[in-house]
């Protein structure tokens, strides 16, 4: 049962890493200059705010007068936030997190779980071998 739980956790971590990588690769990246934030909801690790402002594409090909995005906390007016939008007609943005750090942490967690599983299996096999009678003991 332990093996199935650990393998499920490893698969889950790898799936999350791949999903976030694809999400970061989609859309047009740029920055939003925050014009304001309003409380949206309570969350376990802090309040969620709905923030918005003017979007400028990283390649300077277009700007959007106002896009909204969710953030874990209130942001100061004038702050610049890295986001991704679907295109020039977008009204919402997705905050871009540090994908490399997130990928390292997620894959590191998966590798750590795999190492724990390997150690547990090795110890279990040794314990099992130690409790079995050897062929010379049967005589």
Please write out the topology:
Elements: H1 2-25, E1 28-41, E2 48-57, E3 63-71, E4 80-85, E5 94-95, H2 99-131
Antiparallel strand pairs: 1-2, 1-4, 2-3, 4-5
Give structural notes.
With 139 residues, the chain is of the alpha+beta class. It contains 2 helices and 5 strands. The chain has helices at 2-25, 99-131; strands at residues 28-41, 48-57, 63-71, 80-85, 94-95. It has a 5-stranded antiparallel beta sheet, with no helix packed on it. A hairpin with a 5-residue loop joins strand 2 (48-57) and strand 3 (63-71). Helix 1 (2-25) runs antiparallel to helix 2 (99-131). The model has no long low-confidence stretch (mean pLDDT 83).
In short:
With 139 residues, the chain is α+β, with helices and mostly antiparallel strands.
Keywords summarizing the entry:
139 residues, alpha+beta
Termini gap:
37 Å
The succession of helices and strands, N to C, reads HEEEEEH
Runs in which pLDDT lies below 50 for 5 or more consecutive residues are none
Give the spatial strand order of the biggest sheet: 3-2-1-4-5
So how many helices? 2
Mean pLDDT across residues: 83
Based on secondary structure, the structural category is: alpha+beta
Q: What is the number of strand segments? A: 5
Biggest beta sheet attributes = 5 strands, antiparallel
Determine the fraction of residues in helical runs and give it as a percent range.
40-55%
Choose one word for the global shape: elongated
The percentage of residues in β strands lies in 25-35%
Determine Rg (CA atoms, Å). 24 Å
Protein name: DUF3592 domain-containing protein
Keywords: Membrane, Transmembrane, Transmembrane helix
Organism: Paractinoplanes globisporus
